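quick one before i forget lol
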Amino acid sequence: MYATTHNPSTSIEDIVNDVFSTRRITRLDQQRFMKVALSTTLSAADHALINRVFDALQRGILRVVD
């Protein structure tokens, strides 16, 4: 099992880096991702990072774990 420390005030870039470093996205990662995405105005760079995660999920590069 992978243990990571999560800072509640992280940026989308930090969350994406965490997800890609483990090649897994957990329910907690998803919740952090959504909290940050919904609470801030997203830049073009943030949109690109979000698209990178969705693309990696569709291509099977990232695994969804519970």
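fyi Residues 1-6 have pLDDT under 50 and may be disordered.
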